[in-house]
Structure formats: C-alpha cells, structure tokens
Amino acid sequence: MDKLIIKGGKPLFGDAYVSGSKNASLPIMAATLLAEGVYNISNVPVLKDIFTMGELLERLGIENSFSGDTFILNNMDGGGADAPYDLVKKMRASILVLGPLLAKRRKAKVSLPGGCAIGERPVDLHIAALEKMGAEITVNHGYIEASCGRLTGAEINFKTVTVTGTENILMAAALAKGRTVINNAAAEPEISDLAGFLRKMGAEITGDGTSVITIEGTDELSAADYSVMPDRIEAGTLMCAVAGTGGDVRLHNAPLKCMSAVTDALFTAGLAVKEGEDGVLELSSGGELNSADISTKPYPGFPTDMQAQYMAIMTKANGTAVIDENIFENRFMHVAELKRMGADIAVKDGQAVVRGVKELSGAPVMASDLMASAGLVIAALMATNTSEINRVYHLDRGYQEFEKKLRGIGADIKRV
Ligand code: EPZ
C-alpha cells in the first residue's frame, strides 16, 4: 500500500496549479444520464472518484474516457438503472445517479450508501424529496428501489442544507412536469456549476447560488459541452500549506471569488493573498501563525472540507483556536493523529480546542478520510524531521497529483 514520506520544515516557493473541481465534476457527470448524446467536459480532474463515477455510468450505458484533459461521455441510453453496492461502497457520491435515473429512465435501483469515517450520512432527504415529486420508493436489502411515471414539480423544503440532495433534486426537476422550488437549498458554488451545465443542456433554473432555487421542468434536454470550475478545496489546501510552512507561492486557477470564508481565516492566521492582474494569486507568509476561531457552515460559511487542513496550521499558531464542526458528527478523526505529532488538541461535542505548540515532530500517521489526509500532509510539511502518512489512497480520491504539486513548490515529499 502506498505511503507518503515527508521531511518537514521547508518553506514553499514557486508556482502551483489548481485542478478542476471533483465535487462539481461528479454531479455534472451524473447529469449526462438526462439526455442521449456526446458530451465534452473539460477541466475534469484525473482522480479515483472520477473513475469510479465513470465505471458506474459505463454500467448505465454511458461510455466515457479522458482524451487529454477533456472527459468525453457518450450516452447511448443502455436503459440500465442499477447502481450496485460494489461501486457505491467505493464512493458515496454514487447516490447522484438516483435523481437523473428516475427523471429520465423512470426507475432506479441504487445501493444505500453506508456511513463513513466522518459520520452516519443518511440520504433520507433525497428520498423524501423524490417521493414528493411522485416517485415510489422502498428500501429493501440495502437498496433504494424507485420507480415513477414522469416526475412532477413540487415544493421541496429541506430541513437540513444538503449538497448532493440539492443536486439530485435539481437534476430530477429539470425533466419533471411543472415547477419545482427548492427551499433551504445548498448554495455551494458546485451547485451553481451543475446548474450552469444543466442550463446549457436546455434546463430552466434560477436562484442557484442562493437558498431558494426554482426549476421549470422541460420535456427534453440535449447533450452539451462544459468546462468545470476549479477546485476551491484544493486551492484552500495549497493555501494552508503555504500558511503553515511560510514561503511565496503563485497559485494559478484558484476560484478566489467563492473562497472568502477561507481566505479571511487564513489572512487572520498570517497568510497574505494578493490577486495579480492575470488572476494569479500571490500567497506569502513568514511562517508565523496567529490563532483564529472558525465554525464550519454551509456555503458561504467556512467549509467542513477545509476544517482538517485549517486545524493542522492552528496546531503551531500563537494562542488558542476553537474549531466548531457543525456539518458532520465525526469529522475529527485527524485529531488523534495530529496529537501523535505533538499537537495539543482537546475535543468535546463537535468542538476542538487547539492550543498552539512551538513545534510539531514528524511521526508515522494514518489517514482516515480524504480531507483528514490533506490535514496530515500539511502538518507533516510543518513538522521538524520526517513523517510517514499511511493509507494515502484516501488522498488519491480527491487530490490530483498532490505530492507532485507540492514537490513542484519545494516540498520534500515522496511516495513509496
Ligand atoms: C457533499 O457531501 C460533499 N460531497 C462532501 O465532500 C462535503 O463534505 C459535504 O457536501 C458538505 O459540504 C460531494 O459533493 C460529492 P450533505 P453530501 O448532504 O452532499 C445531513 C468529499 O469527499 N444529511 O450536504 O453527502 C448529513 O448527514 C466529500 O469531497 C441528512 O441528514 O453532504 C450532514 O450532516 C466529503 N440527510 C449534512 O446533512 C440527508 O438526506 C450535510 O450533508 C442528506 C444529508
């Protein structure tokens, strides 16, 4: 099994490039179920999760492959409707095929995603919303089995903001009869990217990027080409790396406009971010860090997907930072590993209190999930001496050539 060996303590200098967004690409790929034809989707990151979604779509009659950096999908409507356990267990985002399958093929059998390292993560809100649109759904032997006539528009009131739930309903509603209004919708930029793609396919959607989205259902959609937004989480992770180690890095393709919560927190922590005329971000830090509290929230709040990386830099900040995790109940798995590197962190009831220490010392640590592994990599870059990060397959799910990018800006990191 691959692991990363990181010799910490080196500031970072040079140019780094942000890849396309994983969490925008996945729903956009699922949306190709809504219409037959050929799609050229550019800026899709080359990642494990993308290949898992590709494999699932292949089983549903959509051929797909990369050609250079463009992902090409050909929906030949094979008519399949099964998302089996062997694929869903690899990636929970497989649930994204439920909405489009029902809307277009009027049936779906999708394995129920189980819990995962960060929490229980139910999909009850997806199911209830699709039922409100006319689907008949039962859960049998670990599978969601659903069928419908043409879905009908409805008023959906999500009691919790759900990203993939909003995306599933957005896709289902695009082909439903009549108007759907999603209240308490997720406003994440990846939702707007999906809405932008659906509009190119012919959908009528307004309000994306806010908490109320309105969709006028259309009879038919058609294949379209699209370019996926850059990954704000990868950009934020690279920013944390520079804040934590110190240095000067030019960050290319970062979606700065949708990163205020992260850049504000990192500015307080000691990272200067300046946007050059060419849109390139000039990141600069002396390596001295200040503590600042954060609280994770749905967009535009501080993203839960940046919590572990931010915690990593707070471990060496002057003072104490209080980090509240409000989205997932179990997203502090990285804490025990950071403590093995000398961090002083106390966790109680979804809150972590991080008291800055003078030094982190390298250690062998174990990644538990995608973002936790990114946090551990950052801590290892900040530590004196060498760390060994095990189970890096988590990192490979979501970060394209991460160690290569870090090596490109001077990090001493290798995969063995
Ligand atoms: C998306 O997951 C992302 N995944 C996650 O990134 C991200 O951490 C999360 O949103 C929060 O921003 C993708 O976009 C593919 P939610 P999602 O539904 O949609 C509760 C990654 O690997 N809830 O917004 O699954 C849920 O338990 C991942 O990149 C219900 O109770 O998250 C959670 O507490 C890690 N019932 C809260 O809502 C439901 O039916 C928000 O979850 C659905 C959700």
Detailed description of the structure:
The N and C termini lie close together (8 Å). The longest helix has 14 residues. Helix 11 runs parallel beside helix 12. The chain is an alpha/beta fold and 416 residues long. The chain has a 4-stranded mixed sheet with strand order 22-23-1-24. Strands 2-15-17-16 form a 4-stranded mixed sheet. It binds ligand EPZ. Ligand EPZ binds next to helix 1, helix 5 and helix 6.
State the gist of this model.
This protein is α/β, with parallel strands linked by helices and 416 residues long. It is built from 14 helices and 24 strands.
Attribute tags:
416 residues; alpha/beta; 14 helices; binds ligand EPZ
List the helices and strands and how they pair.
Blueprint: E1 4-7, E2 12-17, H1 22-31, E3 37-42, H2 48-59, E4 62-67, E5 70-75, E6 82-83, H3 85-88, H4 98-105, E7 107-111, H5 124-132, E8 136-140, E9 143-147, E10 155-157, H6 163-174, E11 179-183, H7 189-200, E12 204-206, E13 212-216, E14 226-227, H8 232-245, E15 247-252, H9 260-269, E16 272-275, E17 281-285, E18 294-295, H10 307-314, E19 320-324, H11 333-340, E20 344-348, E21 351-355, E22 364-366, H12 370-382, E23 386-390, H13 393-398, H14 402-408, E24 412-415
Parallel strand pairs: 2-15, 3-14, 6-7, 10-11, 18-19, 22-23
Antiparallel strand pairs: 1-23, 1-24, 3-5, 4-5, 7-9, 8-9, 11-13, 12-13, 15-17, 16-17, 19-21, 20-21
Helix pairs in contact: 1-2, 1-7, 4-6, 5-6, 6-7, 8-9, 8-10, 8-12, 10-12, 11-12
The structure holds ligand EPZ.
